[in-house]
Amino acid sequence: MIVRKGYRFRIYPTPEQEVLFRRTIGACRFVRNLCLEQKVLERHRSQPRSLSAWSQGAELGALKAELPWLREVPHHALVQAIADLHKGFKAFFEGRTRFPQYLRKGEKESFRLPDPKQFRVKDDAIFLPKAGWVAWVRHREIAGVLKNVTISRSGDHWYASVQTEAEVVDTTTNQGATIGIDLGVAKPITLSDGTVFALPRVSTAERRHLAAAQKRMARRKKGSKNREKARRQVARIQAKWARRRNDAAHKATTMIAKNHGVIVMEDLKVANMARSARGTVEAPGRNVRQKAGLNRALLDISFGQIRSLLAYKAPLFGSRLIVVDPRNTSRTCPACGAVDAMSRKTQGVFSCVACGHADDADVNAAINILAKGQAMLNQIQPEDLPGMACGSSRTSGRKQEEDSREGRSPVL
Predict the structure, then answer these.
(1) What residues contact residue 266 under an 8 Å CB cut-off, 6+ apart?
(2) d(Cα 106, Cα 111) in Å, to the nearest integer?
(3) 144: left (phi over 0), alpha (psi -120 to 50) or beta
(4) Burial of 411 (0-12, 13-18, 19+ CB in 10 A)
(5) Catalytic center residues
(6) Are 334 and 180 in contact (CB under 8 A)?
(7) β-pair type (260-266, 320-324)
(8) Pair 9, 125: CB distance under 8 Å
(9) Checking phi first, is residue 294 left (phi over 0); if not, alpha (psi -120 to 50) or beta?
(10) Phi/psi of residue 334, each to 5°?
(11) Of 22, 31, 247, 409, which is the most buried if we count CB atoms within 10 A?
(12) Full-prediction pTM beyond 0.90?
């Protein structure tokens, strides 16, 4: 099994290299927006042309002749920007994302070099085209075959993300227990064995600090140096939150993937969950401020990021990730199977109205998620599940049945 893994290191470019990086980001944004505009205009023609990533990339030569400043940046980064745009179109037509939008200055400050022949790495520096050797802190070894590198900016820091490709010979080495995961606001990550991972949250004081910085930026004249200083201050605050959130998410998901053989979690639709409740002028929404606070909490925990991290870390540790339907996981009693919304009158306690079974609400939901995952595994033959240890689901199921008879856990 071939897996890809990313290694992110902080780089320290010189002032000249930093100017080149900024110009490259701006050039990629310009080329991407130009190709997007070309695609949009072609849709309204009576006989639209079929514009592919290859055909639009072939026009870069003529574009550089007309705009010589595009020659100052690496050519492969511009080609990759066009390829990423067409990946966005493919995702849109498959129903996985919205229609590609125009990028503004300050959004997605990064560019990628897709050809491993274009860069080289050593202990204290990385070689990039047109920039030369850029100093970095290589705090760990890079394993695998180099595939591409992405240069990005977060706040005032620059990073190089090196992606490698390696073959995992055996993905069934993890003999850990099967675990269910419940994601929530009060308790970000709750496992079916009762373990809770409390991810860091943005405090009220920090939000006030950000609001004050945003207010200062809004009062500055557009295009002025003072507004740019205020904008960078806002970016620094948000980048600090992102680094803290990513660090905690990586540590939690690594511990989960490393210690469990099968991981079961809900297939949550985060975009629908975090949708605004404002409504329209004709049909205004209700409890808008309360829903806005809930949306901030959901995005602060980053449910989608946790799932993505587990999806790529599970094969690395020899485990398997399974997603199940989230319906009724928080209102089902694992002891008697009764489904009733009244069983969870409060946020933290589940008390079944049918049999009286009581448990922590989040642990109860995680147990139900685990039960759904085990039911899915029992319906599918082991040979139809690449990367899953044969018989692991049946073994764990027998053990839980024995535990339930002896009163050690609820019946699943």
Answers:
(1) 181, 182, 183, 323, 324, 325, 326, 329, 369
(2) 13
(3) left
(4) middle
(5) 182, 266, 362
(6) no
(7) parallel
(8) no
(9) alpha
(10) -70, -15
(11) 31
(12) no
| HEC secondary structure over the chain | CEEEEEEEEEEECCHHHHHHHHHHHHHHHHHHHHHHHHHHHHHCCCCCCCCCHHHHHHCHHHHHHHCHHHHHCCHHHHHHHHHHHHHHHHHHHCCCCCCCCCCCCCCCCEEEECCHHHCEECCCEEEECCCEEEEECCCCCCCCEEEEEEEEEECCEEEEEEEEEEECCCCCCCCCEEEEEEECCCCCEEECCCCEECCCCCCHHHHHHHHHHHHHHHHCCCCCHHHHHHHHHHHHHHHHHHHHHHHHHHHHHHHHHHHEEEEEEECCCHHHHCCCCCECCCCECCCHHHHHHHHHHHHHHCHHHHHHHHHHHHHHCCCEEEEECCCCCCCECCCCCCECHHHCCCCCEEECCCCCCEEEHHHHHHHHHHHHHHHHHHHCCHHHCCCCCCCHHHHHHHHHHHHHHCCCCCCC
- The one-letter amino acid at 151: I
Structure tokens at 30: 């310009």
pLDDT tens digits in sequence order for the chain, 412 residues long: 788 888 999 999 999 999 999 999 999 999 999 999 999 988 877 777 788 999 999 999 999 999 999 999 999 999 999 999 999 999 999 988 889 999 998 888 999 999 999 999 999 999 999 999 999 999 999 988 999 999 999 988 999 999 999 877 555 566 778 899 999 888 899 999 989 998 888 889 999 999 999 999 999 999 899 999 999 999 999 999 999 999 999 999 999 999 998 999 998 887 777 777 777 767 777 777 777 877 787 788 888 889 999 988 888 888 889 999 888 888 889 888 888 888 888 888 898 988 888 888 889 999 999 999 988 888 754 344 333 333 333 333 333 343 433 333 333 2
Give φ, ψ of 111 to 5 degrees. -150, 155
